[in-house]
Structure formats: C-alpha cells, structure tokens
Amino acid sequence: MVVAGCTKCIKYMLFFFNFIFWLAGGVILAVALWLRHDSQTSNLLILQFEGHQAPGTFYISVYILIAVGAVMMLVGFLGCYGAIQESQCLLGTFFFFLVILFACEVAAAMWGFMNRDTISKELINFYDSAYIKAVDVSGSPSKDSAIKVLDVFHTTLDCCGKGDDTALFKQVAGTLCPRKSPEDLLKSQSCHTQLIELFSEKLYLIGLAALVVAVIMIFEMIFTMVLCCGIRNNPGVY
C-alpha cells in the first residue's frame, strides 16, 4: 500500500463518497426518467391546441437531470477506481469532471431559480387560451377542440375552471366538467392552483436532489485534493 496514516483514511473516505456519488447518480437518473414519463405531466405537456404544443419548459430541467445522473454514474466510477489505484492521473481527471459538474449544477440552479414560476405560468396561459374558446357563446370553430383540451386538464388535475364564480362559468360548468356533479363543482379546486402546486412539488424535488449532490461534490473535491497531495508527497510514489 502506497499511502498510510491519515492519507490512507482519506483514500477510503473518498472511495466511500464516490460510491455514494455513483448511487446518487443512479437515483437522480431514475427520478428524472420518472418525471419525464409521469402520467400527470405527460398528459398535459403532449396537448396541442390551434396548432400550438403545450409549453415544454419543464422538460428542459428533466433532460438536464437525466444527463447529470448519467455523467455522475460515470464520474463516480472513475473516482472509485482512481482512489483504489491511488492514481494521480485518474484523480486529477476525476477532480476536473467534478468541477465541470459543479459549475453546470450552479448554472442550472440559477436558471431554475430565475424560471421557477415560468413553467406553471406558461401552462396556465395555455389553459386560459383553451378556456376562452370553450366558453365562447358565439360558437368558435375551435370550441370542440378547446373543450377536449380542458377535459384533459380537469381529469388529470381533478379540478374545474379558473377559480372564478362568474355567471358565464356557472352556465358552462356542466359542459366543461361533465364528470363532476353540481355538489362537486362547488368544492372543486381551481386548475390554476393545481398547476402551481403540481410543478412546485416537482421543482422542489429537483432542487433537493441538486442540493444533496452539491454537498457530496464539495466533500469529494476536498478529499480528492488531500489524497492527491498525500500521494505526491509520499516518497514511495514513482
């Protein structure tokens, strides 16, 4: 064994953290794939109305998460192997990838924070555009397709309408939400509220995963530098 003492302890701690990092990459990849194929979001984001696709900004964060999870598994394996082999070259490469990943994660977190309300607002606007056509009493040619779009929202989110109690809404509520009885309509939640809650929960999950990974990466960068210094200063290394 080349390293000894505290450096040897650091070596095994780095291996342990890299193994956790590799597992975290697998968990993040699995969560991202679940978010991508989750029935609630998928049912809403595949909708089309008047030639326009439902906004897919949410999928940008999901695709980033898929890429991060896959790279984390690769980098975690590289770190484990480099720690066991006590290879400065492998550890240096591992440290380089860690820095790149950390920078990308910070950039993605900043983008997510700046656009945290964009996803729900875009879908609310999409819902409202269909809602306006659906309640149009003049007989818009796209009224039937608008009602079908709203039906998907109402069925998926178990909601009805925008949360208003206007006379026009009360007249068309039975058409917009045919699966609900008059009593259910009085107790049903606004689709605006349901959309905000849906994507707030999923973005919170993404943010929590990113925070856990960032903490692990900080410890790994510290241990990697310490181990590299220990290997370089050990007279037994050639």
TrEMBL record:
Its main location: membrane. GO terms for cellular component: plasma membrane. It is a multi-pass membrane protein. The keyword Amino-acid biosynthesis does not apply. Keywords: Disulfide bond, Membrane, Transmembrane, Transmembrane helix. InterPro entries: Tetraspanin/Peripherin (IPR018499), Tetraspanin_animals (IPR000301), Tetraspanin_CS (IPR018503), Tetraspanin_EC2_sf (IPR008952). It is found in: Membrane. Disulfide bonds join C159-C191, C160-C177. The chain crosses the membrane at residues 12-35, 56-84, 90-113, 203-227. Belongs to the tetraspanin (TM4SF) family. This is Tetraspanin. The lineage of its organism: Eukaryota, Metazoa, Chordata, Craniata, Vertebrata. The gene is LOC117732482.
